[in-house]
Design goal:
The complex is a heterodimer of chains A (about 300) and B (about 260). Chain A has about 300 residues and is of the alpha/beta class. In chain A, about 40% of the residues lie in helices and about 20% in strands. Chain A has 9 helices and 12 strands. Chain B has about 260 residues and is mainly α. Helices cover about 50% and strands about 10% of the residues of chain B. In chain B, a hairpin with a 6-residue loop joins strand 3 and strand 4. Classes of the chains: A alpha/beta (about 300), B mainly alpha (about 260). Chain B: It holds the Pfam family DUF2063.
Chain lengths: ~300, ~260
């Protein structure tokens, strides 16, 4: 890494209502060298749970220049098993060391046995699983001494046992635990398409004041035969036009919240990712102006 | 067992298995005629996401066997060794032994040892920070007492010995452009992997130096380690070795 350019800045912890990008190892040096004008970066804390080495050093350097958010993938809030206190300790260590402005986790599970799926598996939405998730969110918040945001999942199947609509389950889980919500607009689009849910009905019960962050990403289309398709949330392509459209509706309704462009596969060079971040930045500015005019 | 636990465990069983999911599991999924295809998205993700993590850790193995064979090996590995940790940083620790156990790979007997270099590289990359031995620490030891001291290698050091030229194989496959031919008749190699600062270093040492370092790693005093090394390799020159490596980051501490 390039230690020749020591940072003179000490960025605030606060994640601004601007667009941010997922921080990727292939972009570390580019970001340090070129100091792009970008609101914030998001990391998966599990990628920094090594005991030392380059990733933590790069993160330290980048954190001194930018606010960050932590988007956990390993807590397994919806698992029938107890939460892992060692993992919560590791998370707490990173939170104390890097002072993220926002912390989030998914409404899903990945720990079914003693091993981990490393994929986000959907929950059965019942009163019993709601009680479990609320208890798990509270345990995480108690350990971190912070509010966390819960993200709506993308999913490809539903369980027959579920008797609470996903959006009501999410809102109820957040309200009861004191958590906020991370609205993943691409996930709304993907899940509504995969399960023939109505997007308006999905979004209507979500209170604007609970939403602390928005995610945007690309998805793939998988043909299933008999003219049906499944949308696959692979974070492997630019955000599609329909999701941009939905995003603009969302920020006009709930306000301009920090918005992340997620990219986890087919990762382009930083300049390309930065251009996509600028779209979100543009829409956020536009929405702010529209709201300002309408409140005058 | 709770209903939720039963369902989650059945789901995990089916993710790992190449067989049809049980009727009980498929019955639990809302059925629009596509419930098997819907489930298969998760099965595929499980194999691909964890297989990709393995590919990131073992790029040289992937080049050596080819993309298609690597995918088959990764699928079998993910099914037999599902991830045991909440992070994927060190996923694949059993892959070298797994490769050694595959009968179809008997023609590539060096593969498992090359994989050991790649795993050691990743383990060193994420290892805890440790200082390196300094001149001040060494100068506090008198020449007479030196042989009786414990000289501790840096905690990130890994020693990998092989009957095959694994260093040349690993080195030649660091880029895609190479078409270098490596003769297996080059014979054995002794590789060390080390991260004294931020960069992981991979290099070869003599047979004597290799045994000397392994003895020191297990806590032997310098004199005893030297005796083992010289027995294995009569050409081992301790003075030359120490001049080169005592203060180059190979070592961590010296205790009298």
């Amino acid at each position: 890494m390039n230690d020749a350019i020591p940072s003179l800045r000490s960025a605030s912890a606060l994640v601004p209502s601007r667009a941010g990008a997922g921080l990727k190892a292939v972009h570390y040096q580019d970001i340090i060298d070129n100091q792009p004008d970008i609101g914030w970066f998001e990391i998966h804390p599990e990628n920094y749970m090594g005991r030392g080495g380059a990733p933590l050093r790069y993160l330290e350097r980048i954190r001194s220049d930018y606010p960050i958010s932590m988007h956990s993938v390993g807590t397994s809030l919806g698992s029938h098993q107890p939460l892992d206190t060692k993992h919560l300790d590791d998370l707490k260590y990173l939170v104390d060391r890097f002072q993220p402005g926002l912390i989030s986790e998914h409404l899903s599970w990945s720990h079914g046995y003693e091993w981990f799926t490393h994929d986000l598996i959907p929950l059965v939405y019942t009163q019993a699983s709601l009680d479990l998730v609320v208890d798990h969110i509270q345990q995480v918040q108690d350990r971190l001494q912070r509010q966390i945001l819960i993200e709506n999942p993308s999913s490809y199947l539903q369980f027959k046992q579920s008797d609470i609509p996903e959006q009501h389950f999410l809102v109820e889980a957040a309200k009861r635990s004191g958590a906020g919500l991370l609205l993943d607009v691409n996930n709304v689009y993907v899940s509504c398409s995969n399960h023939q849910w109505d997007i308006e009905e999905y979004l209507a019960p979500i209170p604007a004041e609970l939403v602390g962050e928005i995610h945007l990403a690309g998805h793939a289309v998988q043909a299933l035969g008999n003219e049906q398709v499944l949308l696959i949330d692979d974070h492997g392509s630019p955000v599609c036009t329909a999701v941009w459209e939905l995003y603009r509706n969302c920020i006009d309704r709930i306000g301009t919240v920090p918005t992340l462009i997620e990219r986890d596969s087919n990762i382009p060079d930083f300049a390309t990712l930065y251009n996509e971040v600028q779209y979100a930045e543009y829409y956020l500015r536009q929405s702010k102006e529209v709201n300002r005019v309408s409140t005058c | 067992m709770s209903q939720l636990a039963e369902l989650q465990q059945a789901f995990c069983d089916a993710l790992r298995s190449p067989e049809m999911p049980t009727d009980a599991l498929l019955d639990a999924i809302v059925d629009d005629g596509l419930n098997l295809q819907r489930f298969n998205v998760y099965r595929n993700n499980f194999i691909v996401l964890n297989g990709d993590a393995l590919a990131d850790m073992y790029p040289v193995i992937k080049r050596l066997v080819g993309d298609e064979a690597f995918r088959v090996l990764a699928t079998a590995y993910v099914r037999s060794h599902p991830p045991q940790a909440r992070t994927l940083l060190l996923y694949g620790d059993q892959f070298p032994a797994f490769l050694a156990s595959i009968p179809e790979l008997v023609e590539l007997p060096y593969l498992a040892d090359v994989a050991r270099i790649e795993f050691a590289w990743t383990e060193a990359y994420h290892a805890q920070e440790h200082p390196v031995l300094t001149e001040d620490q060494v100068s506090s030891i008198t020449a007479d007492a030196f042989g009786q001291c414990q000289l501790l290698p840096h905690p990130t050091l890994h020693c990998i010995g092989s009957d095959y030229p694994i260093y040349s194989i690993w080195q030649a496959n660091q880029s895609c452009e190479t078409d270098e031919l490596i003769s297996l008749d080059q014979g054995e190699s002794y590789v060390i992997v080390l991260r004294p600062e931020i960069d992981v270093e991979v290099s070869t040492v003599s047979q004597g130096a290799f045994h000397f370092l392994k003895q020191l790693q297990s806590g032997a005093i310098i004199e005893a380690a030297y005796e083992v090394a010289i027995e294995q390799d009569s050409t081992f020159d301790l003075g030359v070795f120490l001049t080169q490596h005592l203060l180059d980051g190979t070592f961590f501490q010296i205790n009298s």
